[in-house]
Design a protein that fits this description.
There is one protein chain. By secondary structure, this protein is α/β, with parallel strands linked by helices. About 45% of the residues lie in helices and about 15% in strands. It folds into three domains: about 10-70, Arc Repressor Mutant, subunit A; about 70-95 and about 210-280, Winged helix-like DNA-binding domain superfamily/Winged helix DNA-binding domain (Arc Repressor Mutant, subunit A); about 110-195, Double Stranded RNA Binding Domain, CATH 3.30.160. The strands form three sheets. It has a four-stranded mixed beta sheet with strand order 4-3-2-5. A hairpin with a 2-residue loop joins strand 3 (about 130-140) and strand 4 (about 140-150). Helix 4 (about 60-70) crosses helix 6 and helix 11 (about 220-225) packs across helix 12 (about 235-240). The longest helix has 21 residues, at about 10-30. It is globular and about 60 Å long.
C-alpha cells in the first residue's frame, strides 16, 4: 500500500490543534497525561489525535511525553529551561543537519533607502506551511522574506511592504507555493538562495543564526559573543527581531538567558511548535 503524502495544506490545517496539544503537554508532562487528555486539548478524538500528532511532530504523543519526563529533562526544567529545550536535552533528538543555504549579500544602497525601495522588484504570495499560512516575498536573486500571516495574508504582506513601500510588487500565489514546497520539503533538495536586504550588522547576526543546528537552541548573549560583540545583546536582539526570513534564518532557536521561551513575533506557541518539529526530525 502506498503511504499517504502529508501535504503542506494538511500540515497547515493541523497546526493549530497540534500547537494546542504541545502547549498542554508542555504544561502537564509531569502528570503523564493520557492520550484522552491530550486529545481533548487538541479538540480531537483520541484516535484522530494520535494520527495527527504523530504525523505532524514525527513521534507519538507517548514518546514525546516520555522524552520530557526523562531525568535530563527534569533537571533542565529545574534550571528553568523551556519545554522544547528540555526535550532536546532529554535526547528526543540529536542536532539535525544545517540548512545548506546560499546567501546573496545584497544590502540596500543609500540611494535605494532614500527612495524607499523604488526600483526594487518583488513577487509575493501566500501559501500553506506546517506552521500555518505564510507570505513569501521573492526578489530576482532569491527569497527575501517569509512571514507567518494566518488568518490574514494581506495584513502579513502589508507588514513586509512597509519595509520598502516604493518597491514594485506582483502577487503570484502559485510562485509562493513553489517556494513553500522548496523550503518545507521533507527531504533535502537544492540549496535555497536568500536575497537579504539589511544593514551589514543585521546580516552578520543573521549569518550567526544560520550556524545554530536544527533541534538546538542558543541565547542572545551567545549570538553576541559569536559576532564579536559580547556586550551587544540588546542590539543582537533588535537584529534578530528584524530577521525577514523566519524558519530558514532560525531566530526561533534563540532563547532568553535563563533558557525560557520569550516573545516571538509570530507567537510563542508557534516558536514552541517549530522547536518540537525540528527536534523530532533530528
Amino acid at each position: 500500500m502506498t503511504a499517504t503524502i502529508y501535504t503542506l495544506d494538511a500540515a497547515a490545517r493541523d497546526f493549530d490543534r497540534v500547537s494546542a496539544a504541545l502547549a498542554f503537554l508542555g504544561d502537564h508532562w509531569q502528570d503523564h497525561p493520557d492520550l484522552d487528555a491530550a486529545a481533548r486539548a487538541a479538540g480531537l478524538s483520541p484516535h484522530h489525535f494520535q494520527r495527527v500528532f504523530t504525523r505532524w511532530v514525527g513521534v507519538s504523543p507517548k514518546k514525546y511525553v516520555g522524552a520530557l519526563a526523562h531525568g535530563a529533562a527534569r533537571a533542565a526544567f529545574d534550571d528553568g529551561a523551556c519545554v522544547l529545550d528540555a526535550s532536546f536535552e532529554a535526547g528526543l533528538s540529536g542536532p539535525g543537519r544545517l540548512h545548506d543555504l546560499f546567501i546573496a549579500h545584497e544590502a540596500v544602497t543609500p540611494g535605494e533607502a532614500r527612495r524607499r525601495g523604488a526600483g526594487l522588484e518583488f513577487v509575493w504570495g501566500a501559501a500553506p506551511t506546517p506552521f500555518g499560512e505564510a507570505v513569501f516575498l521573492i526578489a530576482p536573486r532569491g527569497l527575501s522574506a517569509l512571514a507567518f500571516a494566518d488568518p490574514d495574508p494581506e495584513g502579513g504582506f502589508a507588514d513586509l511592504k512597509a519595509r520598502y513601500p516604493a518597491a514594485n510588487y506582483r502577487r503570484d500565489d502559485d510562485v509562493a507555493r513553489q517556494w513553500a514546497e522548496r523550503v518545507f520539503a521533507s527531504t533535502p533538495g537544492e540549496p535555497i538562495p536568500l536575497a537579504l536586504y539589511g544593514t551589514p550588522w543585521q546580516r552578520q547576526v543573521w549569518r550567526a543564526l544560520l550556524s545554530i543546528p536544527a533541534g538546538a537552541t542558543t541565547t542572545y548573549k551567545s549570538i553576541a559573543d559569536a559576532v564579536g560583540s559580547a556586550k551587544a545583546s540588546r542590539a543582537v536582539g533588535a537584529a534578530v527581531g528584524a530577521n525577514p526570513i523566519s524558519w530558514l534564518i532560525p531566530c526561533h532557536r534563540v532563547l532568553a538567558s535563563n533558557g525560557l521561551l520569550t516573545g516571538y513575533h509570530w507567537g510563542v506557541d508557534r516558536k514552541r511548535a517549530m522547536l518540537a518539529y525540528e527536534a523530532a526530525r533530528g
